[in-house]
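Render this sequence as a predicted structure.
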Amino acid sequence: MNKLQIIPTNNISGVVDVPGSKSYTNRALIIASLIKGSVTIKNPLKSDDVSVMIKCLITLGIEIKENSESIQVIGDISEVKDQEYQLNAQLSGTTIRFILALSCIIPGVKIISGDDSLNNRPIGELAGALKDLGAKIEYLKKPGYPPLIVKSSSLSLKETRLHGDISSQFFSALLMIAPLIGGINIDVMGVQISKPYVGMTIDLMKYFGVKVANTNFKKYVVEPSQGYVLKDYVVEGDYSSAGYFLAAAALTSSTLSLKNLNESSIQADKNFINILKDLGSEINFQGSDLIIKGAGVKPMRVDMENCPDQVQTLAVILAFAKGKSVITGVRSLRIKETERVLALQNELSKMGIKTESTIDSLTIYGGNPKASEVNTYNDHRMAMSFAIAGVVLPGMIINNPEVVTKTFPDFWEKLSGIGIKSNEI
């Protein structure tokens, strides 16, 4: 399946069963591997990113079993032997960052790499912090980037500092291993971006029995003498995945019901609800069901630093809003699967939409977009975001549509379920 053409429709309706959160699933896998005893993760996301995380843990010798409804982490890091390991994170940024930190507290020589695009994403800030804590890490090619080799198996110090404006995942990686090294103090240099993602890590650690003192996202402290508690875990629905359907309903002034969403969730992309409300959509909860009544789009100015994974989705629907829109807080998008700001500008330009950008903003001059053939840059979110434009524009074609398997393998099927069909061409 090399290309899909989206078929426009004026009849979007129905119910979407939202899959489990990738962010919570992968965090739960790491924490479960640090706990002695069997942990069952229920309602996990099944996707490429999660499969890659599981493969890395299994490579280390940690026993994991899967079925259609759960993942059972039976083993833990005490089973890791003193030998050489090749750990391939493929295209998963979450995996390579979390596995790098984990590798610093287990035996053996760990060689950690990814596919070419992942190896071009910087990891030096996290590696430097781990070195400050006592890790022995070497770069195998370009300094500051994968692949790396970890030759140590323990961390001796408890204090480090990280720049906050690169990736929140660096902080999450360190926090999750903290109970196994006797606690940690992390100072944030500058401004912490993507705060809700750190909050999700802290939330999950608390669920498993470990408290993190968070001083206004400027300092994190995990006190010593804490340990994870053996518990099963149910993954809540993924607001990142929900965002595409919410955007489609907003753009077309349609009504949809989305199931399996936690109204009290602290997920970063839950903020997208408030953005769509500002555009005029009516959104309400009935238990774990979210009901949206879309009301079209209009130009807006919005800071998306705390929900960066929805920038592409919002940018696409704002292309239909007649006038100037400004999205700020986009700097973290420049080191994702692709340089997402540039990718957005390239593809919106092909649709006849003028854009401008700075290091931390994207300006969109919307109004009358035309259909185009969209390159996805091996980026799942480019494919899913631009698919929404095809709901109203005849002739929208998505190249490499199978890239959605990274986080949402049945995305196209769920689109079809609410009336948005597509043809393979």
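Summary. The first strand starts at residue 3 and ends at 6. Residues 22-234 form a domain with the UDP-n-acetylglucosamine1-carboxyvinyl-transferase; Chain fold (CATH 3.65.10.10).
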